[in-house]
């Protein structure tokens, strides 16, 4: 008898990832699957159940994300403590042995000194009464908006503090923009493959996303033009410097073509430049091409740390004020302690040094990945993302599950597909999330080895 014998007996319909996850969760909570039990490898489990390997992989990933299971390097996936459903102890144990390349961050170089200095100075100023601890203006403290002007001038011209809204990170900015800038009955045009936060921000605001076909250079202008003729679109979301998940930079001529289409159809443009600090612009920013209808969105989550939840919306006053009002309705205000910390960092010489350090480190890692994989795009990876198309013999979800069992977490292509049926057979790797060069290279070598050896057959059990 196997772990899945009862599942086969009680299931009279085609197995799904959700039903398999529910079955395993029930057995964990009842104690019939004890902590430390090793789950069968994905393909062996699929053979036992009579389903696709991708179904098992998704179920295992769901258990892992909930803290009910964890992967161990070279050993497989194991049941954790049922009582740890919040995932805190298991997450800590899992992170200790897993190279997490699925969530994109740039903590390869910890910003400890920058943050320590900023937090100490802010605490000192707050204690002396030099930072208001009361409610703040909708757009955020004026002095902290002024401090952001040099940073935002990378993409915008002639900004004033009145053109800037401080937000609780880039994600909060997107959600507020989608809530306030989309005309009733219309939708948002975006890349067919996009940052999952775009998908969730649209979903929570009950706004429809319209995927635009992409090619090697990102969004195809002709596809956007055709979409605008057929559908009611009022907002265009673009990531021109570093497209997430592919990492490509939109060339100058394509930016100009897309800007022309946006102008003809009266679209408001959301220009996401959270990764823009990593490389010089490949062309004029949309904020310069369409200054009257573009809102720049960026944050300090990537260049400093995700824990510093400070973002920026910069653009025409009438647009950013609507974003400020929407955020105010959701959050009431952003903490002045956070915005003061961000302002202190932006004004320090150490900030520019950190940008240079991260840029150089990502380039070196991109070069290593390019050497480990055939047909990879080095230029795209200098944006900190590696988009790896898998051999046909691999399914992306199965690959991600097997990679995690070997100690490396990656993100399968379906996470980024606006339309599930268009999910590519690929995975995304975050090049900046793993600390330590030796650990990073070991993770890349593991992924390269796994990609080169897809399972050709299911296990044979006598």
Automatic annotation (TrEMBL):
Top-level taxon of origin: Bacteria
Domain HTH gntR-type positions: 14-82
Pfam families reported for this sequence: Aminotran_1_2, GntR
Entry keyword set: Aminotransferase, DNA-binding, Pyridoxal phosphate, Transcription, Transcription regulation, Transferase
Stored SUPFAM superfamilies: PLP-dependent transferases (SSF53383), Winged helix' DNA-binding domain (SSF46785)
GO-annotated molecular function: DNA binding; DNA-binding transcription factor activity; pyridoxal phosphate binding; transaminase activity
Gene3D superfamilies listed in its UniProt record: Aspartate Aminotransferase, domain 1, Type I PLP-dependent aspartate aminotransferase-like (Major domain), Winged helix-like DNA-binding domain superfamily/Winged helix DNA-binding domain
Protein family: In the C-terminal section; belongs to the class-I pyridoxal-phosphate-dependent aminotransferase family.
Protein name: Aminotransferase class I/II-fold pyridoxal phosphate-dependent enzyme
Annotated organism of origin: Stappia sediminis
Lineage, opening ranks: Bacteria, Pseudomonadati, Pseudomonadota, Alphaproteobacteria, Hyphomicrobiales
